[in-house]
Design a protein that fits this description.
mainly beta, 3 helices, 7% helix, globular
């Protein structure tokens, strides 16, 4: 019964209210989704994949997949990126997919401060499968017991396509980073059956880079390399909702660990634990959301996995300082 009620409420919400984007706990491990200015931020080509399973104990959980590729090209003074994301809400009831092309212009403001400015164009496709949730009567044991007679629903899967544009900028140095992003600048119509816009999403994110143990550079194994403490924050607002993340990460050449707290203006949401491991060109991150809202006992939190593969660099002149965002 919970499954059917959840699906009905989900469909009602997505067709009558302003839609909201999926979110990632490891948002710095999905840089192109966070801010288009980060395209080419590592100079060398990289491939990144992300998977999130939110509320796995509920029948209508949310699963989100993303993959991206980006690199820096000296002749165009910046980075190029390709981002693909797929979101599945309610076990296939509502599916959303988009593909984005991104260009980020890189320039230096001073010898130690870089400015990156990103432009993103996306093609979106949303689909609704009425067979998974529509019916004329609901039995508390058997669920939907009679098929619907609605002509629109019986017409099959309903879909919606549209173009979307976003913009982002980032200031970065060896001691801080600060980004501003505006996704969905034109607020395109994305509702299936009635008027409903994809609201603009406004994001501010940033942090500091603090070297806390230079002596570790002389050691080997898991403790090799400089150790950094990176306190960071994220604030985003979309339609009538807002999200605040405050956390910190400690990282060296191999290991990374972090904790964070996520909430809205009105309610606490989750405590976040992030762990990461890096070996040569491979970086793997795992995070878990400990739900602390009123849904604590029923959701199962959220699991998230990130995988980053750093490809070999083409020899070139480095024009920017490395961006030391949290690795995971």
């Amino acid at each position: 019964m919970k499954k059917y009620i959840f699906l009905i409420l989900s469909v009602f919400f997505f067709n009558s209210a302003y839609a909201q984007d999926p979110h990632f706990t490891q948002y710095y491990a999905n840089p192109l989704y966070l801010n288009p200015a980060l395209a080419g931020g590592e100079y060398c080509p990289r491939i990144i994949t992300n998977y999130r399973n939110q509320w796995p104990m509920m029948a209508g959980n949310f699963e989100t997949y993303s993959a991206s590729f980006d690199l820096t090209l000296e002749p165009i003074h910046g980075g190029l990126g390709l981002l693909i994301l797929h979101d599945d809400a309610g076990n296939g009831t509502i599916k959303s997919t988009f593909a984005s092309l991104i260009y980020s212009y890189h320039t230096k403001i001073t010898r130690k401060i870089d400015l990156l400015t990103g432009f993103q164009v996306s093609s979106h496709q949303r689909s609704l499968d009425p067979n998974l949730w529509f019916g004329d009567q609901i039995d508390e044991i058997y669920g939907f017991v009679y098929p619907t007679q609605d002509d629109i629903v019986n017409g099959g899967i309903i879909s919606k396509s549209y173009l979307d544009f976003s913009f982002g900028t980032l200031l970065s140095s060896n001691s801080f980073f600060l980004g501003l992003v505006a996704h969905h600048l034109t607020e395109p119509e994305e509702a299936f059956l009635a008027a409903g816009k994809l609201s603009m999403k406004k994001t501010i994110h940033g942090g500091a880079i603090i070297k806390i143990n230079e002596a570790v550079t002389q050691t080997s194994g898991l403790l090799s390399g400089d150790t950094y403490l990176i306190p960071n924050f994220l604030f985003k607002s979309q339609a009538q909702t807002e999200q605040i993340n405050i956390g910190t990460t400690i990282t060296n050449n191999i290991l990374s660990a972090g904790v964070a707290y996520r909430r809205s203006f009105m309610n606490s949401d989750a405590m976040l634990l992030v762990l990461g491991f890096q070996k040569d060109a491979l970086k793997i991150g795992y995070s878990y959301d400990f739900t602390i809202s009123g849904l604590t006992s029923s959701t199962g939190g959220a699991h998230e996995i990130s995988l980053r593969i750093q490809l070999p660099c083409v020899p070139k002149k480095i024009i920017l300082n490395p961006i030391k965002c949290p690795k995971f």
